[in-house]
Known about the structure:
Number of helices: 16
Oligomer: single chain
Distance between the termini: 22 Å
Order of helices and strands: HHHHHHHHHHHHHHHH
Helix content: 55-70%
Largest sheet: none
Structural class: mainly alpha
Amino acid sequence: MWSDLLRRARFGLALGASALLLYVVTLAPSIVPGDGPELTVAARFLGIPHPSGYPLYVMGGRLASLLPAGTVAWRLNLFAAVAGAAAVGLFGAWLRRATGSTAASLAASAMLALSPSLWRESTSAEVYSFSLFFLALLLHFLPDGRDARRLPLAAYLWGLALTNHLGLVLLLPAFAGWTVLRVRPSRKTLLLAKACFLVGLTPYALLPVRAADAPLWNWGDPSNLKRFLDHVSGAPYWGYFGGGSAAERLGGWASALGSELTPLAYVAIPAGIVFLARKRRDLLVPVLGGAAIALAYALLYGIHDPEAYFLPVHLLLLVP
Length: 320
C-alpha cells in the first residue's frame, strides 16, 4: 500500500513540478488587466474584492505577497502558478489511482496543464487556478468503498473551497450528495461532517471584520448583515444569469474544445465516458453529473469572458 501511495505521490509531484516550471517561465512579470489589479491590492492590504469576496484567496495572497522575491504583483502571479500546478499534479495522481493507467493520466494531465485557459489563469493573479486546485483535491475524497471516516475532512475542505470561489457550490449535489449515499455514514458522522463544513466557511468572517476597519480596498463595504449577505451571495451579478444565448455559447464551447484540450479531446472524452460506464460506474454521478452542472452554469452565466468557468468542466471531462 505504502509503495503504491509513494509512486502516486511521485507521479503527481513530477506532473506538478513540470507544470510549475512552464507557468513560472511564462509568468506575467507584473499586473495584468482584468481582476488582477483589484485582487493584488486586496490581497496585499487584506481588503475586500468584488463579490463573493474570495476571503481564502485574499488570505493566501497576503501570505504570498510577503515572499522575499520580485514585486508584489509578481508574487501574486506566482501564487496563481503554484495553485494551477498543484491542481495538475493532484488531478494526475488521482486519475492514475482511479484508472490504473499511467499513459492516460499523463495525457489527460498534459491536456489540462497546456489548455490556454488554465495556462492563462496560472500566470497572473486570479482566483480560478486556486479553485481548480480545490476541485482536484476533492477528487481524492470521492469514496472507493463505504468507509465514512474521511467524510468530516472532505466536508471541511468543501467549506474552505467555497471561501475561495462560490462557483464550486454547484458541484456539491454531485460530489457530496453521491458520497453520502454511497458511504451511508452514521448520524454522528454526518453531524460532524456538517459542523466541519460550517467551520470551513469561517474565512468569510474576514469580510465584515476587515470592512469595519475601512481597508484601502473595500468593495461594497460588507460591514453590516445585509451588505455582507449580498456580497457573499454575489447578488450584484445575479442579473447576468440568462443573458445571451446558451445555445450559441454551447456551440462556441464545443467548437473551441479542440483548441483548449487539443483535437484529441473529441475522441478522448467519449472514450472516457465509455470507460466510466464499463469500469468505474461509481464515478459516473460525481464526474459526469458535476461536469453537466458546471457546464450549465458556465453557459447560463452571461458574461463576456466565461472561459475560466469552463475549467471545472474540462477537468472533469478529462476523466479518464
